[in-house]
Amino acid sequence: MSYTIKSFDEYQQAYQESIQNPEGFWANIAEQFTWQQKWDKVLDWNFEEPNVKWFINGKLNITENCLDRHLKTRGNKLALIWEPNDPKERYVRYTYRELHEKVCMIANVLRNNGVKKGDRVCIYMPMIPELAFSVLACARIGAVHSVIFAGFSATSMADRINDAQATVVLTSDGLNRGTKQIPVKRVVDEAIATCPSVQKVIVVERTGWAVNMEEGRDVWLHEELQKVDKDCTAEIMDAEDPLFILYTSGSTGKPKGVVHTCGGYMVYSDYTFRNVFQYQESDVYWCTADIGWITGHTYLLYGPLLTGATTLMFEGIPTFPDAGRFWQVVDKHGVNIFYTAPTAIRSLMAAGLDHVLSYSLDSLKVLGSVGEPINEEAWHWYHIHVGKERCPVVDTWWQTETGGIMISALAHVSPLKPSHAGYPLPGIQPILVDQSGEEIKENEVEGYLCMKFPWPGMIRTTYGDHERCRLSYFAAYKGLYFTGDGAKRDKNGMYRIIGRVDDVINVSGHRFGTAEIENAINQNKHVVESAVVGYPHEIKGQGIYAFVICNHDDPGNEQYLRDEIIESVVAEIGKIAKPDKIQIVNGLPKTRSGKIMRRILRKVAEGETSNLGDTSTLLDPNVVDEIIAGAL
Ligand code: PRX
Description:
Layout: H1 8-20, H2 22-30, E1 41-46, E2 51-56, E3 59-60, H3 62-74, E4 78-83, E5 92-95, H4 96-112, E6 120-124, H5 129-141, E7 144-147, H6 154-164, E8 168-172, E9 175-177, E10 180-182, H7 184-192, E11 200-204, E12 218-220, H8 221-225, E13 237-238, E14 242-248, E15 256-261, H9 262-277, E16 284-287, H10 294-307, E17 310-314, H11 325-333, E18 337-340, H12 342-350, H13 354-357, E19 366-370, H14 376-386, E20 393-396, E21 430-433, E22 439-440, E23 445-451, E24 461-462, H15 466-474, E25 481-489, E26 495-500, E27 504-507, E28 510-513, H16 514-522, E29 527-537, E30 541-550, H17 558-572, E31 581-585, H18 598-606, H19 622-629
Parallel strand pairs: 4-17, 6-7, 6-8, 7-14, 8-11, 11-12, 16-17, 16-18, 18-19, 19-20, 30-31
Antiparallel strand pairs: 1-2, 3-13, 4-5, 9-10, 14-15, 15-24, 21-22, 21-23, 23-25, 25-26, 27-28, 29-30
Helix pairs in contact: 1-2, 3-4, 3-10, 4-5, 6-7, 9-10, 12-14, 16-17
The protein binds adenosine-5'-monophosphate-propyl ester.
């Protein structure tokens, strides 16, 4: 069996082997890496507790595999290209040797500031090179990184820091995104006012804005770097030691900290990267995701660096200075493989073809999509106008919890079908089940998407609360990992992901729980109760529709109330969770037992009120008429 699959026949062979002998299959792949000590046993698992362990007693450091391992053969190869927000600012490029040095130095800064193996370090930073260095620096010394997307509010950050009991925060003075300027350090200051675990804040100078530096707590990275060596011995980690925590939303309560471990995640991110994108040694690869999300972790940083690729990191947004920016960057750096989200494609599609046609895009070989279902129109536009019909579009389905891509075409290897993720990767055993949890074996069916066998990159636990992990993913269907997604399987066995079947809304590829947004809305003093649902949105995939009951003694100015509600959501979660529509209502459709019938609200939000189904269990059916009359 070869490590990189080159034809569909080889894919089928690898798939068969991975099912018949999973341990042998993954051991063979794991052999390709540098281990300080080999594993005793490949896999131990049960999905009841759950307990999943890969490469038991294996010892390694993932950064030795991302960096040191390449120095002999790829020391002078470009590892990271950084493209700034403003195209007038000069880009920066780092070879593997330079990246190694940067990572080692920041790792030493962390050690000097008291960080030890196992400590949690929060990283809240814009898309600047120091973000990449910092993530790897944590991994170098065995600290568990928890990257928080720099668009989250101070309250969200504080919740995450407190949950992980992080002792150090790495951040920057400010950030520029498009024409917006965000005082990042000020947000951090506000957050850690309620985070007693934080002892040190290390600040990168990016914008030069004046910031508050608290004596004894805050230090400048550039000053700390003066004090350290260029070498840093990598901490030896157990394969099952945590590598990072990444918070993601579920259908209940606050976001949970998904925990990934060193060995399995390494093997899985490398294997999926090289096979899905079919990376060739001289390719320039660009994933547009922010490192604050799982896509940025696995396919901007770890996967490409493990493979020895040249990976591009972009600080800006697709529409600044204009909607041709992505394509300008592709031409400028000769990007061969381009990986983005359907939301970005749809917004660029709406901006008009001229922006694409002004660029050659000759370097492109492979296009990827991730984060949400890609509608056929967007798929074709991407394929025809960006890929000029010569680049396959790999529609990659996966989740924060899966660590890496699960269902996808392999570029230039697998058959493509628009809006279909396609076949599972080797090692992945998806099944569809019906409501009672029975497996649906036939093709041309629809069901709940589950996994019946572990894979190395999968979630191990939710930080600090293992029971929550069990309840969220392993309790719905006995012996299965439940994804929360519904899917169809066509007559050839190709999968099409339909979307979430739980109370999770996917807005522009970002996950929010309806309960999470409702909690934020309910923080507002004018609000009595709220209910949030998703509805189809042309650009974002799904939009957020909030039905809100306000206090009667309020001034009655609806616009004022809406602004207030938005402010609460921005303060509690961040701008990315702003409701698109807010309908002020007098009541919510509740059953006699007090449960909100969301099905009805979803129909109203979708504008499909002709057939609301059975409403006989409603306490007060008049509420529905009123909601329909006021629908936005
Ligand atoms: O509903 C699926 C959707 O995004 C969810 C996972 O979100 P998150 O953990 O934030 O990770 C996003 C990036 C991996 C899934 O449960 N999703 C992700 N990729 C696709 C998708 N839906 C359809 N097609 C995809 N390619």
